Amino acid sequence: MKMILAIIQQELAAGFARAGYDEKYAVATVSNRPDLCEYQCNGAMAAKKEYGKAPREIAQDIVNALADSEVFSEVSVAGPGFINLKIADAKLAEYLSIMAEDPELSVSPVYAKRKILIDYGGPNVAKPLHVGHLRSAIIGESLKRMGRRLGHEVLGDIHLGDWGLQMGLIMTELQERKPELPYFDDSFTGEYPAEAPFTIGELEEIYPAASARSKEDEEYRARALEATHMLQEGKRGYRALWEHIINVSVTDLKKNYEKLDVSFDLWKSESDAQPYIPDMVQKMKDDGYAYMDQGALVVDVAREDDTKEVPPCILLKSDGASLYTTTDLATLVERMKLFAPDEVLYVVDKRQEMHFEQVFRCARKTGIVPDDVRLTFLGFGTMNGKDGKPFKTREGGVMRLETLIADINQEMYQKIVENRSVRDKDADDTARIVGLSALKYGDLSNQASKDYIFDIDRFTSFEGNTGPYILYTIVRIKSILSRYQEELAAGAGCMDAESSAAAGAGSADNTQSFAAVLPAASDVEKTLQLQLSRYNEAYMGAFSDRAPHRLCAYIYELSNNFNSFYHATKILSEENQEQKRAWISLLELTRKVLEDAIDGLGFSAPERM
């Protein structure tokens, strides 16, 4: 289904051609002065030089050429040569009627489908998820859903941190506490226990204790480094322990990500990339890209046109150890071999921008990634407390993610109970649904690269630019549609067959047909109709720019438009049945658009609030 903007520009181009001007100047945009017009074209001013005529004269020629247009109800010249446009009410209603019967709600799958691998999540095993993991999960999940909605093949990879010194620290501390375990007995040749020798709670306590001790005890740190080396060399007992750590951690991670309604197709990790490192490094040496510099193996990635210093990419340290850079490059080798994506999108902290700039340049230079594969860095800002600093607990520590979710759910539960709109037995479930919207929308409505203030009172409010406000709008629409169904059911017994069939055509649950949307009966209805007609542009633009906040802005405006229409219009008491059915169709379309959009953002709406 065409975008409404494409229809407008097609008609505008025809007007330019009839007036004798090049169609390339027929570019329309949404007006930033909706009090004056709905769309605007600045092509007359752009054409001034080519045609040697005053912009207002060119613009007037276009206006004259569009005098009989069925697409526009008004075309006029403003200022130095702007062309102001208003779409015809009948044309807009026709567009929405087609959109209402379109299963895709005008958001048609793209023609050029791509395979996109999104790297999001990135937690370290043996550590609990905390608020620092929130943004990557929420933004990545939204982009995955939106990409799939548009027909792309999208794979989400959690990319676990399961390699390096943290593993050696855990094993060293375990040996201190439980030296009798068979994993530390080099003479043990039997089968290791199937059950892990620790719970997730114990594991999450072991790592910080080991990390703290290693900073004060050099001998302890040396043992941890040796344990890390032995693990990476394949020591049997350590590999068995490592598998226990992964299994226990992943089980807990899945449980916590499920609370966020976040899922991953791939549970790949740093360790999966290790087998690719030796051959990758050797090839870089053989091809003349990697060389020794002060004992380290590096690849130059600086360019002559750089405006800031881009340091060499370090592959191996002087002791032969690999770094995150090495692992990320090897991960790209693995991804190209196993999945052959058209794009790899990294949703990570914006403070890692230089790291990924080096990785991307090295991958391109050395041929790991072909030129036609897109590498995208989507860096996000921090979630801060009201003091403007990274969000902490009242005690000053990093807040666990499950604690944050529980706090929001409790806040929503209290508000729902106070409203007395949901039965007590349903309040918990409703609070979880609405709480998730508060958390996700509160994050996604901000531009990803910007820091933002996490304010639980504002995020859980039923008013303003919040998730609960969007859901409250959807629930309000559902309530009206439900009452309309009740009216139909109550009146069905006294209707003749013809009247009953006509009423049924407007039924909100009727999937076979819709009552046509009628030309707007008021300015507030026209505003709502215009916003609905722009859904495909908003959705596709938000994904194309990797900007979920744009879709949030769209549905916030749509919710405002609907609520203005609702307060100004007596929908269910309207006596003209054709008009009433048309409004019901408009409401049903609004509900579907809002629910489709929030599904792309990663949350859903309850039946009642």
Note down, in words, how this protein is organized.
By secondary structure, the chain is an alpha/beta fold. It folds into four domains: 4-87, Arginyl tRNA synthetase N-terminal domain (Gyrase A, domain 2); 165-259, no CATH class; 270-380, Rossmann fold, CATH 3.40.50; 404-601, Isoleucyl-tRNA Synthetase, Domain 1 (Orthogonal Bundle), CATH 1.10.730.10. 52% of the residues lie in helices and 10% in strands. It has helices spanning 4-18, 43-46, 48-51, 55-65, 89-101, 134-149, 165-177, 200-214, 218-232, 236-259, 270-273, 277-286, 324-338, 353-365, 401-419, 424-444, 456-459, 467-491, 497-504, 523-533, 535-544, 548-568, 577-601; strands at residues 28-30, 39-41, 72-78, 82-87, 115-119, 153-157, 290-293, 296-299, 313-316, 343-349, 374-380, 383-384, 452-453. Strands 1-2-4-3 form a four-stranded antiparallel beta sheet. It has a four-stranded parallel beta sheet with strand order 6-5-10-11, sandwiched between helices. Helix 7 (165-177) crosses helix 9 and helix 9 packs across helix 10 (236-259). It is globular and about 90 Å long. The model is unreliable at 497-512 (pLDDT under 50).
